[in-house]
Task: structure prediction
Amino acid sequence: MSGLAATLARGRVSFTRSLPALSPRLKRRLLALAALSLVLAGGFQFWLRDSSLVAVKEVKISGLTTKDAPRVRIALANAAQEMTTLHVDRERLDRVVEAYPVVRELKVTPDFPHGLRVEVVEHVAAAMAVSDTGQVPVAGDGTLLRGLPVEGRLPTIAVDGMLGGDRLREGDGLAAAAVAGAAPALLRRRIDNVSRRSDDGLVAELGDGPVLVFGSASQLRAKWAAAARVLADPDAKGASYIDLRIPGRPAAGGLPAETVIPVAPAGMAPSGTTPPAGAAAADPNAAQPSVPGDPSLPADPATGATTGGAPQDPTATTPTAPPTTTTPSPGTTPNAPQPLPAGGAEGGAAAPTAP
Result:
């Protein structure tokens, strides 16, 4: 490493000695030449930027959609053709469109050497601000669009006081305009009005649908997206309101309740159906009778045993005429012996007689 460093040092010294020394006279000439070059370049730049060599001859204007578009386009083109691509007067272009409230912003891009592109960003009327002094279209950011022709139906927002100045003052009117301005175009046409309620905050009432509850003016795009999903859901049809205060969990309320209950044929109670009104519900935890018998027969009040006796063996021979105890008729004493008709009953079963 030490040998390499020494070699580099010797080479640097020899190169420095080989450069000819500049005389003071030559240095002065070089400095004068550099200064003259700067002056010429600056003069050429200032002369060229306003020269006809870079004059604007072709103006492309886009973004205009309202019926004032022809007049705005002509005014911008006339002003732009008095400029060059190296010297665009933005303030002058802004002054040209001040008379047209529909224009919100201009985006100007020079296209060297003779072109100029102007993109017009329009205000969109989001609602109609209504006060005691009249009504004025308003944009979603609260800009009052005086003189803007209203195309189609707009939701209304109530504003206290006079509609003065260029913008709505801070308050409920400005928040309501923000709600209307964030609505998708298809849903905005369905809004009747936007207002603030004491319990629900900001709400939008649809002319052919439920009330949309927004609460605050935050996360408006997410809330409108949630509203569109719920309105498109067939299960939410008939809802009286949609709560959008938590846009990730919208809730549809006021849906009609299901009141239809299946009715079984008379005398039958199929499993899984609702018992008729007035019927006592069976207690699954009630004690079962200790003596086996027919569970469909009533139990003896004294012993708790069923009155049907022991269960019948399907293979056994049926007795000829055993006296059986049947379900007592109203007004009779349970398990009381019943008189048999003369000669008994066919089939060996005794039929109960009327009291």
